[in-house]
Amino acid sequence: MTLLHIATEEGTVKIVRFFLNSLKGHETILQSLVEATTYYYEETALYLAAAGGYLDVVQCLVKHGADVNVESNFGSALHYAAQRNKWDVVQWLVEHGKANIEATDNYGRAVLHWAAQENKWEVVQWLVEHGKANVEARDIDGRTVLHWAAQKNKWDVVKWLVEHGKANVEATDNYGQTVLHWAAQKNKWDVIKWLVEHGKANVGATDIDGRTVLHWAAQKNKWDVVKWLVEHGKANIEATYNYGQTVLHSAARWGNLDVVQWLVEHGADVNVKSDNGETVLHSAARWGNLDVVQWLVEDRKANVEATNNDGQTVLHWAARGNLDIVQWLVEHKKANVEATDKLGQTVLGWAAQKNKWDVVKWLVEDGKANVEATDNYRMTVLHWAAKYKKWNVVKWLVEHGKANVEATDNYGQTVLHWAARSNLDIVQWLVEHKKANVEATDKLGQTVLGWAAQKNKWDVVKWLVEDGKANVEATDNYRMTVLHWAAKYKKWNVVKWLVEHGKANVEATDNYGQTVLHWAARGNLDIVQWLVKHKKANVEATDNDGQTVLHWAAKEEKWDVVKWLMEHEKANVEATDNDGMTVLHWVAKEKKWDVVKWLWYIALMLMLLTLMARLHYFS
């Protein structure tokens, strides 16, 4: 900030005039001083003078060459004056400074937008009638001048814009919200009433989510607006927005008990369901509104055991985060703690998944919830807590809930299998403190280490091998090792670590005789290159069908692998499988003609090079 900025900000015109006059004859210096900006907001002295309403300073700066239309991060000098209600400065800048009245700030707002929110209607009138400002100008959110006047409760401005400026009452912003939507959200009572009664604003207009003005008023707890819209505006109390949410759902979700009570007393259906089957009680419980829950149940007998389309009760939703509602529903209304949804999930299961440790604790200790209950996949609560990395819940369920660490799901997977996919801390604790079986296998013979490798959990793989003493060479039902799986799923870091530190056998074969390289060739050139270059993996190894690594790369259309194997490792293009098929046969069979041509070219080149080498030898 220069001395000129400081003098301008204080409105001391004599000092400003002295600075500027003293630089006469030094036009370059004068211009640079006038155009200098503050470091952070990039404001010139003219901005500060306009914001302060110092008209004489503004006039002096303009006289000495200050650019009226230069813009900072927040618009032009005209914006600064309009935002701060400096009407005389606005008028002078437009009439004498030739300021651009349609210039916009970083939010796309013109001077008229700011005038509508900050000034009297006379200012707006002057800008429109004398400055020819565009009444329908929109900011970056698509909001018009009328939108801003309405939400700032400038009733006189709203009235003038509609009656004299012919502003469009039904104009919508980028979110589909009309002027009336905004007035309702901001509880601008006078504006709402005038827009409906005189502006003929559409009470039933919906935004892009299908919300009516009444939905917004209910959500924002504008009880008097809700009442007036229904009684005088004839707003539809049963209107629904996306997914079938009614006005009552909105009020219940946002905990607006007064609005809920009024809506119900005036005909709103307590048991109405949204498209996904949620009742109003579900909404209230889900979002933690105990007073609404209590009133709906005790006063209106709302059904505590009502289920949504997924079979979830009110208690299922409450258990995801609202202990007070869980306690009240169970203790006072005998809500069923063991209720299951369509996937067999209990209330305790949902609390565990969402890491609601206080709810888990209470359900087990006071609600007597069954820790070993299983869902449709035979997964226990502990399985789910481990799957979703809920460390505190896992620990508490095992230590206090006595949950079975070795319980298996439908696929034979233990809690440790699930933990290995996601969280090292849980794996370590289960093994070190609860002696969880590191070598447990699921129904496909997969070990805990196998799952960690597939999911690229390198830290878990490392710990299981080094500290858990997991068997690197363990095979599943297909005789695939952990290394096979890591290569198959392109887990480059895991492959490298297993070979270098775990001493995994690169040439191990599965039931089909396929090596790790066979699997790597199906998808990852980096792994193929590393295995061949650093571990001397056999490029010509064949599986039970006689197919080489090159065969598999071609069959899976991994042309980068095919190309590298042929060009760098001289893989045998003429090698045949048990059916006498070469790589060229396979590619032709799949009608990959470009590749056929390329392979043929490479084969010819290799033959030519071999021939030349022989000729050279005999010469």
UniProtKB/TrEMBL annotation:
<dbReference type="InterPro" id="IPR036770">
    <property type="entry name" value="Ankyrin_rpt-contain_sf"/>
</dbReference>
<feature type="repeat" description="ANK">
    <location>
        <begin position="107"/>
        <end position="131"/>
    </location>
</feature>
<feature type="repeat" description="ANK">
    <location>
        <begin position="209"/>
        <end position="233"/>
    </location>
</feature>
<feature type="repeat" description="ANK">
    <location>
        <begin position="276"/>
        <end position="298"/>
    </location>
</feature>
<keyword id="KW-0040">ANK repeat</keyword>
<feature type="repeat" description="ANK">
    <location>
        <begin position="141"/>
        <end position="165"/>
    </location>
</feature>
<protein>
    <submittedName>
        <fullName>Ankyrin repeat protein</fullName>
    </submittedName>
</protein>
<keyword id="KW-0812">Transmembrane</keyword>
<dbReference type="InterPro" id="IPR002110">
    <property type="entry name" value="Ankyrin_rpt"/>
</dbReference>
<dbReference type="Pfam" id="PF00023">
    <property type="entry name" value="Ank"/>
</dbReference>
<feature type="repeat" description="ANK">
    <location>
        <begin position="243"/>
        <end position="275"/>
    </location>
</feature>
<dbReference type="Pfam" id="PF13637">
    <property type="entry name" value="Ank_4"/>
</dbReference>
<dbReference type="Pfam" id="PF12796">
    <property type="entry name" value="Ank_2"/>
</dbReference>
<feature type="repeat" description="ANK">
    <location>
        <begin position="175"/>
        <end position="199"/>
    </location>
</feature>
<feature type="transmembrane region" description="Helical">
    <location>
        <begin position="598"/>
        <end position="617"/>
    </location>
</feature>
<keyword id="KW-1133">Transmembrane helix</keyword>
<keyword id="KW-0472">Membrane</keyword>
<feature type="repeat" description="ANK">
    <location>
        <begin position="41"/>
        <end position="73"/>
    </location>
</feature>
